[in-house]
Write a structure and sequence with these properties.
19 helices; mainly alpha; four-stranded mixed sheet
Length: 428
Amino acid sequence: PEGTATRDLDPELFASLQTGKLSESKKTGTFAEGKGLPLTLALIFLGGLALNLSPCIYPMIPISVSYFGGKSGRMKGKIVLHGLLYLFGLSLTNSALGVFSALSGNMMGAALQHPAALIIIALIMTGLALSFFDFWELRMPPALNAVASKNFSGYFGTFFMGLTLGIIAAPCIGPFVLGLFTYVGQKGDPLFGFLCFFILSIGMGLPICILALFSGALKKLPLSGDWMLWIRKLMGWVLMAMAAYMIRPLFSGAVLKSGLFLAVGLAAGIHLGFIDKAGEKNARFVRLKRISGAVVILLGVAYFSSAFFARQGIAWQPYDEALLKKAALEGEPAIIDFYADWCLPCKGLEKAVFSDPEVVQLSGKFLAMRLDLTTRQAFQDEILKKYHVIGVPTVVFINRRGEEETDLRITSEVSKSEFMEAMNRLIE
């Protein structure tokens, strides 16, 4: 009998793969596709600002401001240029790290599929957290500190000062950078990695530059004291929460996973609000600690309680090639979700989009399948190669003929309306 006529799923894509050049419109997980990019960068910028309160950076603010202030008398208008060079030096160091982490994206994703890798990363974060609790002291090698402490004159001196701030502050900012490094590595986009670490650097360096331009404002800064010791311990508990997040995929069931964060929240709230002795002679500060500790405990309890009231999401079936072929024969469209528990955007889609009642109802018109990459699957390499998936999240839409509609592919967090629009277009 005469065979059924077929055509390539995407002639342009296959032609570009043969030449080794993938057109911009067909790349997945690229910078241009980040729908939540402004919010992500805003949060990273705020994180950079918050790092100025760390015990490694805050004491350096008067030193940096004095450095600029000493030049302002003889440089006048050029002090602004020095401030820009300082920011550029700081950004250059961190942005290079961002590009490297993005280029290692596939390697990072593959590593996170192994439980041993998750445990090792969690242990590293726990070890760093213990240094914030003063169980041991984290110090940079003397040789690196010596290089970072060199004083050069002129514009290069200002640039070098910014370039080495990351080295001097590494004991405090290292944990935050490690978390961002993992996140950027999952995305696998060098431009996105560069921008994330560049914005982080701007957040870290901008307050120092502003204070340098208006050096009189330095007198209004609160002195280092007990409040900084408390902030240090707060950052330690943030690290413990990050460690809990890394090993979360190793637990089965929403209740156990939420219980892990409840334990961290209870321990952090009790320690920060009621056990820690920092500033106990200052009644106002003690009151602030009590309120902060109670808020952390309540947040932990609320998060744990949410596990019992979670909405029923899309009924995903495990990936099955036979089901896909059957759907194509019956003219049924399909959705394939590439997912992992350690993928933050994946969790965002799961909570905000895939659990929405309207989305769940509309998903009944599709064959909904999911390839869970939390742990390594024996057959995953062939499937990832077949659909040209380079990172998670990735959602692939298959039409009634069994062909992918490449213009509908999703590779980042999107809103409910955007996802439903793609579903409706596939039905039509």
